[in-house]
Amino acid sequence: METVKNSGNTPARNSQIPDPSSRISPRRRRRAQRRKHLGILGLAAAIAMISSAMVVTDQGTSQAAGPGAAWKSYGDSKMELNARKSADDSKIAVCATDRQINSPRNKWITYEGRRVIGAGKEYRSNKATFEVKDKVKGTAVIFPASAQYRVAYLAGQLRSAIAKGNPELGATVYAIHSLSGRLTTKQNGSAPIKQRAAQLLQQAAAYAGPYRMGKPEIQVKPGSKQGTVRLPVPQSAAGRPLNGFKESITLSGAAHFSSKGQPKTLITSSEATVKEIPIEITGPGKVSAQVEVAGLPPVTYEVWEHQRWQDLLIAGPNSQLSAIATTNADPRQFFAVKTQTKSKMNPLEGGSELTDTILVTAEEKWGKNTGKDSWQTVMIDLSLYGPFSSARGPGQIPAQAQPLKTWKLPATPQNEQEAEKGVTISNETDPFKIDKSGFYTFVAAAHRDLQPENTYLKADYVPNFFEEDETQVLPFFPGVKTQAKVVTDKEDKILTDQVELSGFPDDHLEFTGSGKWKGDERVVRNDLYCLPQPIKDQDAQGKEPLARIELPAKNGTYIVDKDKEGTPLSLERFECKDTYVFVTSYEGDSRTQAFRSSETETDEQYTLPQAPPPTTPPPSTPPPSTLPPTSVEPTVLSETGASPSAPLSVALIALGCGGLLVSYRARRK
């Protein structure tokens, strides 16, 4: 609903009201703007003043929502020597000499401000909350800066004084207030209290802060595992030792305390003299010792302020001291070792077993165990590699080589002589059995990373790979199979032998020698002899062969039909009225076993067939066949050589008597 102004004029709702500024002169407009700006600045200044009044920065006062407590009163309030304890037992308070009345007991009071007075600061009252005289609020220095630490100390004694009761409590309150010079007539009424207060003031002068403590001292002898931490003595500002306070020492780094359980932290009590705590160094590096002394008397106090109720002096929290020291410690004795070795191979049925004897010596001096009169144990890794078909010169272990077995053999000197001359160790109690041919080599190494605890080597020691004294060879055992026969070549009969060699290393004839191992023997001899029956073993010894034959000492099958000069093994050229005998021999070398076939082996023998004796057939025998006689070429097949055999002789006789058998059967019919 619109309201119309009845003034006899045109209704306002239909009129245009001109801008007032259009009716104001420019000069008046400028004055109005200046007044507006000044008003804004004044308002900002007022806000700033109000804010500054709420926070007093020099003593930490805040008028924001302050602390609160419900108080219980203790002591003689009539003599104005009483103190207060909060209902939750967290705060102890005494009147800050404010002349206002006490707050109600057991009623929650929220205070309007809180100050922390510390580090030698004075306490100056807040005139908004503090009555310097009855009914007169004002600002004054209540406790001077020179008394700050003593006030804090005595306030810290209030809790124990409450527990003791009067006169201790009254004397403590009296001593605090006396430092302000604002004692009341009622407070001066008791001589015993004043006397005890004087003692408390002397005590405060001797034991008040600021507190100080030097650094701890870590003492460790070079190369020793044992050490000590010397604890500093905490002192008051007057230099009095503070003993009986909780003291904790914490070690950092490779160290622990020598007490049971080897702790890193130890709790004790401060003493008036330097105390030494034994420690053990467990390794090299920095070792730190931090000492903390807790529960020292307060070095600050608080003031809680209220416009209506007394401002209270609150005991500050207990103080503490902390100091740390760091040092470098290395209890280890480093030394270097080397090994001298001798391997051995003992033959067994079906193979051999390998052992190695090692002399471990220190290059300079064998290191002792830290803090002990015994020597460090060096762990030797004895590794066996193989089999390798050929030897090689000393050098580094091939990257692809994997040991067959590794023995961990400890070497520990038992006396000064062994520490100086060396310690002998061996794997004789656990030899390694081998059954495969080839070269085997030991490597006796000492690795830093694989040493037992408390053994400290300067560097790894790894000897050369394939050292002669560390290498043994289980020989290869070559074998031979033969197949001898006579073939006709242009009416000439040629004695042939098919020789199959096996068991040589695949690379035989390639190894030219290394160190004490000579190169491969290059030939296998397959000489042909003529020996009379009966043939005995070694009959060919000292005899000149009919033909000297050489084969390469390498696996393969070879057809022997010529001597080494290239002359065919013709039966006419190499005439023998007895028995042809092939003798196969091999001298052997560093990695292959020599062998020689026996003359008595029938498969290495060949005898020319004898013609059958002439026979006279009976009259009734039909005429012999006109067919030409069948030529039978004698052939010998053998796994190990060529020679005539008994079955062959029987066959020849049967063939010669064939006519008689046919004639006989005809007559029976």
General description of the model:
- The protein starts with about 25 loop residues before the first helix and ends with a helix.
- The chain contains 8 helices and 39 strands.
- It is α+β, with helices and mostly antiparallel strands and about 675 residues long.
- Helix content is about 15%, strand content about 35%.
- α2 (about 150-155) packs across α5 (about 190-205), α3 runs antiparallel to α4 (about 170-180) and α4 crosses α5 (about 190-205).
- The model is unreliable at about 1-25, about 45-65 and about 625-669 (pLDDT under 50).
- The strands form 11 sheets. It has a 7-stranded antiparallel beta sheet. Strands 34, 35, 37, 38 and 39 form a 5-stranded antiparallel beta sheet that branches.
- InterPro entries: LPXTG_anchor.
As a whole number of angstroms, the C-alpha radius of gyration is 59 Å
Numbering strands along the chain, what is their spatial order in the largest sheet? 6-3-4-5-20-19-7
The end-to-end span amounts to 167 Å
Can you summarize the main beta sheet? 7 strands, antiparallel
The rough form would be described as rod-shaped
Helix content: 10-25%
Helix/sheet category: alpha+beta
| Binned strand content | 25-35%
The overall average pLDDT, rounded, is 84
State the low-pLDDT regions, or none: 1-23, 43-64, 626-669
Number of strands: 39
**Number of H- or I-type helical stretches:** 8
Structure summarized in a few sentences:
It is built from eight helices and 39 strands. Residues 15-24, 628-637 have a biased composition (Low complexity).
Set out the fold topology.
Elements: H1 26-54, E1 55-56, E2 61-62, E3 68-76, E4 81-86, E5 92-95, E6 108-110, E7 113-118, E8 123-124, E9 131-133, E10 136-137, E11 141-143, H2 148-156, H3 158-164, H4 168-178, H5 191-207, E12 217-220, E13 226-231, E14 246-253, E15 255-257, E16 265-269, E17 275-281, E18 285-296, E19 300-305, E20 312-315, E21 319-329, E22 337-348, E23 351-362, E24 378-388, E25 405-411, H6 416-421, E26 423-426, E27 432-434, E28 438-445, E29 471-474, E30 479-489, E31 492-502, E32 513-514, E33 517-518, E34 523-531, E35 550-552, E36 556-560, E37 579-586, E38 595-596, E39 605-607, H7 646-656, H8 658-668
Antiparallel strand pairs: 1-2, 3-4, 3-6, 4-5, 5-20, 7-19, 8-11, 9-10, 12-13, 13-17, 14-16, 14-18, 15-17, 18-21, 19-20, 22-23, 23-26, 23-27, 24-25, 24-28, 28-29, 30-31, 31-36, 32-33, 34-35, 34-37, 37-38, 37-39
Helix pairs in contact: 2-4, 2-5, 3-4, 4-5
Biased composition (Pro residues): 610-627
Region (Disordered): 1-34, 591-643
Biased composition (Polar residues): 1-14
